[in-house]
Structure formats: structure tokens, C-alpha cells
Amino acid sequence: CGKEPSSYMWIYILLGNMLRGIGETPITPLGISYLDDFAKEENVPVYVACLHTIAMMGPMFGFLLGSLCAKLYVDIGFVDPGSITITPQDSRWVGAWWLGFLIAGTTNFLSAIPFCFLPKSLKIPEGASNDRSSHGLLENMGATKKKLSPENSKPRRCQIMCPFLSDFCTSLKKVLSNRMYFTFLCCSLLQFSSFIGFLTYKPKYMEQQYGQSTSKSNFLIGMTSLPPVGIGIFLGGLIMKKYKMSIIEATKFSFTMSFLAYAISFLHFFVGCDNYAVAGMTVSYE
């Protein structure tokens, strides 16, 4: 072509994903804190496990929805279906990728409405430690600040201009200085990095190696890869509640399960297919 086609549609997708991320971010940290503050201590692992299990169900339904949308032509509603001469198995086929955004966006909007009716705070159950809750921690921090006399504590300029930023930096420093949390954070980064890479390229691998369509690849990934993860998270929460594990016991349990998972993952090195015979790439031109 004399002129390469250019489209700025990716900017809209980028902005849409940014807004989606901003809206989804408070659910996990604030939701877990909400559960931890106002639920009985022995029930928190089950509630958190349910939260993460539902979070894993979302991508599963997303893959199923993507499988359905991939069967529909990209210009559905704008062209006559009878005039389409290619099928989803054709390499020129482009599915209705945009339809999933509309369906998911509408569902997110409707599911967000009940959050507007949640109370700001609930009654702390009997037997719960007030120091354990975030509300108790804030009260303790406020009491500590009041002990500082005005003569000995001269506020810095940045604290006066932006108190939120100062408190955020202080809280971030305390969190990152917690050795157990920092170790867990690094471990989670490694786990999710490997899982996301596996989940991203496995559909393409199935398309190339097994000759499957995009629709069927998404369907198989949604039905085989994600449900076991959700079931595992839920069972882990039940086990923690049943045996009332402490921090050290939960750490040992997590280490054992992760070690077994990594050992089984090594079996992927022994599974594969022969490369396609591509002239000039995998075989010679002769």
C-alpha cells in the first residue's frame, strides 16, 4: 500500500480501560477492609475467599461472552448477514469484539447501584478486637497525634499544603516495612505475572497448534482454566476457617500449596506439538 491505514480508536479503548480500572480498584482493598472490620474473625477467610472466587468467575464469563461475540461478524447490525461469504474459521473473519464492552459496561453500571445503599459503617460484632479493625487503627493514630505538643511538633510545609499526601507516604512506608506483607506482595507479583502470561497466550497457542477458531479457543479457556482457580480459592478459605489457622500456619499452608502447584506446572515442559513446516522458517525452501 502506498499509504498505511491509521486509526486512533486505540485512544478510546485506552481511556475506557483507564476509567474501568479506576472504578474497579476500590472494590478489592476497601471491600476486604470492610469485611475484616465488620465480620467475625473466624468468618473473614471464607468471605474473602468468596470475594476472590466471584472475581475469578468474572473472567470465565468474559471468555464465554468473548466466544459468543467472536462468532458474530464485526459489523453485525450494519450489514446484511446473508451478504457475508466468510465463516469464523476463515482467517479474514473479525468478530464483534466491541459488543462485549457494551454488555460488560452495562452490567457493571447496574451492579454498582446497590453499593450506593451500603451504610458508611456497621456495628462491630461482639468479641471483635477494636485494635484489629481499620477504624480502631485510625483512632489509635489520632490519639498518638494528639499526644504531640505544638511546641515539639512543627508541621512541615508539605504537610500543611497536602496533608493527604503526607499521610499516604507515611502509611505506605509502614506497609512496605512489614516484612511478611512485602514478601507476600513479591510472591503475588510473580504468581500473577506467570498466570496472566499463561492466560494471554494459551488461546493463541490453541489456535495455531490445534487449528481452533478464536471463538472455540476462548470457550475452552473459560471452561477449563478459570473454574479450578475459583474452586481452589474457595476451598482454601474453608480450610482456613475450619482449622482456624494463625498467620504462621497460613503461611506454611500457602507455601505447601504453591510448591505443589509449581511442581505440577513443570509438566508443561513435556507437553507440546511439532512445529509447522513453514518454508524458509522451519524447513528449507527445497
What does this structure look like?
- Belongs to the organo anion transporter (TC 2.A.60) family.
- One of its GO terms (molecular function) is bile acid transmembrane transporter activity.
- This is Solute carrier organic anion transporter family member.
- The mean pLDDT is 79.
- The protein has helices at 9-24, 27-38, 44-71, 97-112, 134-147, 157-161, 163-176, 179-210, 214-224, 226-243, 247-265.
- The chain is globular.
- It starts with 8 loop residues before the first helix and ends in a 21-residue tail after the last helix.
- It has a domain at 27-116 and 161-259 and 276-285.
- Helix 3 packs antiparallel against helix 4, helix 3 (44-71) packs antiparallel against helix 9 and helix 8 packs antiparallel against helix 9.
- The protein is built from eleven helices and no strands.
- The protein is mainly alpha-helical and 286 residues long.
- Helix content is 65%, strand content 0%.
